[in-house]
Amino acid sequence: MSSSTAPDPTAVPNPPPSTNPPTTTSNNLTWSPSLTHPYRSLLRRQKGLTIWLTGLSASGKSTIASALELSLLSPPHSLSTYRLDGDNIRHGLNSDLGFSPRDREENIRRIAHVAALFADACTIAITSFISPYRADRETARKLHRERELEFVEVWVDVSVEEAERRDPKGLYKKARAGELKEFTGVSAPYEEPEGAEIRIKGGETSVEGAVSQIVEHLEGKGYLKKGEVQEGGLVEM
To answer: How far is CA 112 from CA 16, 125, 138, 195, in A?
Structure first.
């Protein structure tokens, strides 16, 4: 498809208003239908998805996510990509939440919806959240699946001992001293993924190696064009 030719609006019809609206607790709200994801992808020449990095604090999630974002934004990919970082989100959208199990659940529920919005807008959303509970990560995956959006879970696997040895923010030291309550890996659990698409052994893999591992997976699944640059860089719908 040339850049000067507009897609045929009849090629991917929009859904009727009643098509799969999300649930709500209010009876006074009406779902407003929009473009279908395939049609929006056709217009944008890029398919969105979510890459969900999970792991202990100090596992390297944010560093890998930042490097991956830069890699996908840059040639030869040149893709619309945005990183959603756990600490950054808690400075704004989730600043009202603490670290109790209920608040952690709400933290992930919100960011799952935000990531899905990015993905539906044909952007690659890269999230880096501890997201310690399997059920919450599965909820995020289910949300994407219901909207026919791709979801790639990446487990940055380091031991508590290795994470504590790194401890760049001094959080493990504070947790051991009792200054931080409900700290994952010390006084709160981390439930290891059982079905992550990608497992990165953080103690053995460089940042560059981790990015390559993720990109190779995306290429292998057909989400990225391998060794070839096209408009938008992603496989067309």
So the answer is: 25, 10, 10, 18
What is the C-alpha separation between 163 and 149, in angstroms, rounded? 32
Q: Residue 170 gets which letter from DSSP? A: S
Q: Which two tokens stand for residue 1?
A: 């498809």
Rounded (to 5) percent helix, strand, coil in the chain? 35, 15, 50
Q: Put the strands of the sheet holding 81-85 in their side by side order.
A: 81-85, 124-128, 49-54, 150-157, 198-201
* Cβ-contact 122, 48 below 8 angstroms: yes
For 12, which DSSP code?
S
pTM for the model stands at: 0.82
pLDDT, residue 102, reads 92
Closest CA to 209 of 218, 197, 201, 219: 201
Residue numbers annotated as active site: 131
Q: What secondary structure does DSSP assign to 171-217, as a single string?
A: HHHHHHTTSSSS-BTTTB-----SS-SEEEETTT--HHHHHHHHHHH
Any alpha helices (H) in the chain, and if so which ranges?
37-44, 61-73, 86-90, 101-120, 134-146, 160-166, 171-176, 207-220
Alpha-carbon torsion angle 59, 61, 93, 51, nearest 10: -140
Q: What is the pLDDT of residues 128-144, one digit of tens each?
A: 999 999 999 999 999 99
